Amino acid sequence: MTANTPSGSSKNIDVALIGGGIMSTTLGSLIKQLQPEWSINLYENLAQAGLESSDPWNNAGTGHAALCELNYTPAAADGSVATAKAVGINEQFHVSRQFWSHMVSQGHIGSPKGFINPLPHMSFVWGNDHADYLKRRYEALRAEPLFQEIEFSEDHAELEKWVPLVMQGRDPQQRVAGSRVAGGTDVDFGALTRELAGFMDAQGAELHYGHKVLDVSRATDGRWDVKVKNNSTGEVSTVSARFVFVGAGGGALHLLQRSGIPEAKGFGGFPVSGQFLRSTDDAVIAQHNAKVYGQASVGAPPMSVPHLDTRFVNGKRSLLFGPYGGFSPNFLKSGSFLDLPLSVRMHNLIPMLAVGKDNLGLVKYLITEVLKSRPKKVAALRDFYPEANGDSWELITAGQRVQVIKKDPKKGGVLQFGTEVITSADGSISGLLGASPGASTAAPIMIQVLQRCFPGEFKGWEPKLKEMIPGYGAKLNENPSLLADITADTNRILELG
Length: 497
What we know:
With 497 residues, the protein is of the alpha+beta class.
């Protein structure tokens, strides 16, 4: 592997990928199959790929498919439940699954058991209003082919079979409701990222770990000068790239701002941190087999939706509860306290001030979360797991998420809970801002980047994309027979049966 080679080992390259997370490695893996002769350099500040936002301990959700996340199915004033966003995210997740299946079937990456495991996805609520909503959500979703396997129950005995920890010790008179999709998955995106990086390395891409990108600037010939520091030696050098992708998570905003492209003007970022309680009791861990999502607190960002979550990290089963929201001005877990103030520019000052004024509920929520004592954190856990022993849960710090702030002609600025692809007019530089659903939709988002940035080549790439992703260009929700075929194939290849 080419980790820690001199930053300037290739002075002129086709593609520079900034950041070694799931987005950059997905894009690099696509390009190496669509245009294998192109030279690619990847630069990652940390010691290996997938250690920041893609790491499973830093990722608020590991397998977003809109099966259980209630914020993707909002209720209207008349009580109806909108399903369009959930359907769209699930469609995207199926594209990612097909891409991963292709990589496994071709021997490009290792055993799927190293990064994906079958795991039911479940929503769980209590109280009349929430239970009524969940039932309406179930009825709306089961009409969609993508969600045809969804189940619903308010029966305590049935729910105890699904999630015994959640139901044991619960008041038998409490009205509860749960919906479940048994065919969900858990994804270790850190492990997957490193598999994709390994494929890129085998195909001749240069992977520079321990290398921090300091600046991205336009050269007189229209190419991009990427200034890089080798963290081990202190050496600073520059490479010239025809195309740059900024997939640096929370670090992307600063670099896009430094690039000077007008498309990045008006964008800001609001960092949100988090913590989880992680079980240290193997007997308890073994009793829970699901991702169980509840309703978010008033004012909480979507990434802070509480969940009792089974995860498989480096092949080992674990159990987490959280996240508990927090605030740090860092844009990355490994970042600086100056990240937020240094991101303020004249062009994004008004949007950021407008967002601060219009999101006092979020500010109050974060202050409350920061001040929450450990006993109160354990009390929140017991809402989901009534018999939880707080002494057998350890508090861990999760990763940073930077929510997108963007201009709005009416409000001045809005806080956007999602992802935003920013691309220059000529397609020579692109970057990704935002958070959820993020990693789960990496493949379709990176295909979108390719389409935007390489319109001349893209049509010629489509046959290969169709080979990699059999459902490419189709809406599976509108084609149940194709959905059934693709699901069966990906389940077989990814060993999810």
